[in-house]
Every structure is written in C-alpha cells, then in structure tokens.
TrEMBL record:
Its EC number is 4.2.1.3. Keywords: Lyase. Residues 1-126 form the Aconitase B HEAT-like domain. GO terms for molecular function: aconitate hydratase activity. It is an enzyme of class 4 (lyase). Residues 138-262 form the Aconitase B swivel domain. SUPFAM superfamilies: Aconitase B, N-terminal domain, LeuD/IlvD-like. GO terms for biological process: tricarboxylic acid cycle. Pfam families: Aconitase_2_N (PF06434), Aconitase_B_N (PF11791). It comes from Escherichia coli. This is Aconitate hydratase B.
Amino acid sequence: VELLKNPPAGEEEFLLDLLTNRVPPGVDEAAYVKAGFLAAIAKGEAKSPLLTPEKAIELLGTMQGGYNIHPLIDALDDAKLAPIAAKALSHTLLMFDNFYDVEEKAKAGNEYAKQVMQSWADAEWFLNRPALAEKLTVTVFKVTGETNTDDLSPAPDAWSRPDIPLHALAMLKNAREGIEPDQPGVVGPIKQIEALQQKGFPLAYVGDVVGTGSSRKSATNSVLWFMGDDIPHVPNKRGGGLCLGGKIAPIFFNTMEDAGAL
C-alpha cells in the first residue's frame, strides 16, 4: 500500500498489476487490505498517482464479494462514482444481507440503487455473459480406466491444496496406461500435457470413469489448472474447461459444473 502511494520510478506498472490481478478476492486477509485501500482512495482519504477514485471503484467491482461490498454501496450516494458502483454491483452476486442495504437506498429514491435492483431482477449478470461457441475444437488428454479424486488431488499432497498451481503438479503422479509422470510418485505428466498444449487448442480431460471417490474441490482445481481458462482478477485459479467421461461421478460433475466446465 505504501509503495502504491509513492511508487518507485519504473515500478508503477508492476505495482498496479499486483493490486489488480494478484490479490485473491473475497474475505482473504489481503482482500481486506486491498478493499480498505481502494475505499480510502474512492473517498479521498488516501492518494496514489496510479489510482483515481473512479478506478478504485472499478477495481472494487472485480472483487466478487466480501470486503468490497460496503464501499461500493456507499459509492451509490456519490454522484460521480455512483454509475461505476452501480455497474459493479449489478454483476456482484455474493451480497448476502447487504442486498437489503441496496434495497433500502432504492426505496429511499436512489436512482442508481434502483438500477442495481432492476439489473438483478433481469439477471443481467447471467444473460450478459458470452454465449457458448457453436463449435469447440479441443485436444484430447485421454486417461484410461477410472480416475478417482485421489488421482487428481492426492491425499499425501493435501498440504499444498491451497496453492493450486503447486498442488496440480501432483495430479496423476502415478503411472498408468498412456500416462507418463515426469517424476513417478511425485510429479504428474506435466511434459505430456505441455506437449499437447503445443497443438494450440484447449485441452479436454477425457476418461472412461471420472471423479469417483471422496468429494474434494481440489480435484476440480487441479484439472482446470491445465484444462481451464484464467479468471480475470483472480490469481492462481482457473474456470471453464471441458471434461468428457463415459461416466462422471455426480459430486465431481456438480463441482466441475459450478466451476464453469462443460
């Protein structure tokens, strides 16, 4: 935060990228610091040559929910910032009881709060998302037989689960037909995956039976780290992706679906 207030020469772009893209959203401790700093910029209580109040509200709108919500709702009362805050809130779903704060402002006559309520009612957060392509061209990453969640997120590597890119290295670390781990028992088939990625198409995880065993989101995280798409403003995590299976375990299916996978 102090560096953002007084950025060293030549470090401006790097610092702004750290703030914009490398802080986990939600209720992480770093998100608390980020939201507090951006709120102070928006209110004029702090200054940075890299951020205007308008930009601060825009960045608060990328944080999904948690500590960013109150500053965005407060900004609905600022004529200059309200249009940006309304746009951000219209695409924010994790409101919980803060929904009633927006409702209260709308009932009191705040036009921007009314816009937010109408946008939620019209489900613009969903309907404005990009349409699914009519045709998808992918490269198949085939895993024969049954893949359980321990193959995708091994229990002995549970310590690394919060670090998705690190934990994903252990996916399929034990050799099987068609799968060649970089370091058997330690590191999965990373080189094999990278070679397939060189074809230039997204990878699709294809198996006979996929996702059996205990329910663990980390299994989905590992698959999507290699098969998914970057999530704007969310570091070290991916969504989307494509998974095909003769059979897909119901809980794994739902978890993949929740992460945006097909």
